Amino acid sequence: MSASKSDSHMQGRVIWITGASSGIGKALTRQLVQHNQVIATARSEDKLAQLQAEMPQLKIIPADVTQPDQLAAAAQQIETDFGHLDLLIANAGHCEYLDVRQFDSALVRRMMEVNFMGFIHTLEVALPLLRRSRYPQLAAMSSSSVYAGLPRAEAYSASKAAITQFMESLAADLRPEGFSLSVIHPGFVDTDLTRNNNFPMPLIMAPDQAASRIIRGLARQRFNIDFPKGLTWTLRFLKTIPYVLRHRITASMSRNTQHES
Ligand SMILES: NC(=O)c1ccc[n+]([C@@H]2O[C@H](COP(=O)([O-])OP(=O)(O)OC[C@H]3O[C@@H](n4cnc5c(N)ncnc54)[C@H](OP(=O)(O)O)[C@@H]3O)[C@@H](O)[C@H]2O)c1
User: Fold this and answer.
1) Can you tell me the distance from the alpha carbon of 140 to that of 25, in angstroms, rounded to the nearest whole number?
2) How far apart are CA 79 and CA 133, in angstroms?
3) What is the domain count for the chain?
4) What is the CATH number of the domain that holds 83?
5) Taking the model in full, what pTM does it have?
6) Which of 108, 175, 200, 234 has its CA 20 to 30 A from that of 97?
7) For residue 65, which atom of ligand 1 is closest to its CA?
8) For residue range 131-158, what is the model confidence (pLDDT) as tens digits?
9) Quick one: which atom of ligand 1 is closest to the CA of 204?
10) Centre of ligand 1 from the C-alpha of residue 19, in Å
């Protein structure tokens, strides 16, 4: 992490990161653990143990974000060890694409369970611990896919749009308590989640780069952390043009995607 002035806000804090075993969450963990007390959560105990071997100061608590009991036990452990939380980065997530020719409501449910309800379950157990911080901060991982109706992303982007909208209202309710809130909208990041994508991923970036952008946004207490701007502004512009033209563009993306699959 570069030592800019605002980065001093990201030091000496107790930070809980979910989805820390790989990709963006792992990169965030590696960068933040240098100056903070980081608790890393994911399902894969072996991957978390490897991370801890690399960074002995890291606290690992395996848990599945779809299982409220496991998250309650994790929060209990954090309370015992640290007494409070300064920052939650609810990053755990998964992506599956829908094939509308074989409509699959179970897939849609999985996306909502892991991405949206996973965030909600984590938030429920983290809030009491965050309320004990002098400067409580909450960050939720959404996606730039919420800015446009991208082909086959119905379930994934709906689960992420739910997070974005939830955070909008939550800001109204928690800011008066002194909370800083951020919702993160990355473009394409080169992780296990995108590895099998068979369509062009413009401006794709490395997890370390994404983590640095997120940490900078958190240090500056930005509500909307979105990057890279070249992609997110294009997607946001797409949303503003008349739907007839917009849907013609996204339908052509859909044809290309199906052609490649
Ligand atoms: N890569 C991108 O282009 C991109 C773009 C926008 C947003 N995002 C979002 O960024 C977040 C991180 O994704 P990534 O790209 O870094 O993918 P990744 O490498 O596949 O990481 C996903 C992380 O989430 C964890 N996870 C998944 N299901 C979980 C569950 N039920 N309980 C607990 N942990 C769970 C995984 O760990 P275990 O398998 O060990 O549980 C892993 O640590 C996701 O929310 C994703 O939607 C990614």
Assistant:
1) 12
2) 12
3) 1
4) 3.40.50.720
5) 0.95
6) 234
7) 32
8) 999 999 999 999 999 999 889 999 999 9
9) 3
10) 5
